[in-house]
Amino acid sequence: MNLPLLDPPHCALVFVDQQAGLAFGVGSEDRQVLLNNSIALAKTAKVFALPIVASTSATKVYSGPMMPALQRAIPEVSAIDRRNMNAWEDDTVREAIIRTDRRKLLVSGMLTEACVSFLALSAANDGYEVYVVGDACGGLTPQSHQLALLRMQAAGVRMTSWIQVLLELQRDWTRHDTYDGARAIVEAFAGGYGIGLAYARDMIKPG
């Protein structure tokens, strides 16, 4: 059956400019929530064995390295530093994405109005199926973040959230190879839904 859903063998995760210097300017979302959502997304990619490509910019002059908490979630990933705002126009970043051999790209980063949009629009124009994880992206203001999402959506980029990505990749809680990892992420990062899962595990006993 060919379903119009994300599936692990066809997806790669791209982090663009997840850096503290840019997070200082984010006004579209609480910064800690944004960081937590990005970490949850990174952990989801690891559970489902998605290739991860990360890129940073202006690390020495303004933005700094990838945010440490996110880097700790993916210690095996080395961010590709670049000079221009559009990561797709950087040969090293673009070739790293191409080498994943995945045609569905999940994109998370900052700022939504610039580096996220430029990468997403460019990759989509080159034939990739691009999904922007909106709650793992930060914009300067709520309005400019939303307008950037609408701009991308109008160009064929799909919008999603980190929890939908996890649930879409899992889809069936009897998939035991990813069950424990996926459930642990939900319990740690999904608020009331995670609390409910933990309660069900710890308190509800079979009759």
UniProtKB/TrEMBL annotation:
Alphabetical list of Gene3D superfamilies matching this protein: Isochorismatase-like
Entry keywords, A to Z: Hydrolase
Family matches, as InterPro entries: Hydrolase_YcaC-like (IPR053152), Isochorismatase-like_dom (IPR000868), Isochorismatase-like_sf (IPR036380)
Ranges of residues in domain Isochorismatase-like: 11-163
Gene Ontology terms for molecular function: hydrolase activity
Protein name per the record: Hydrolase
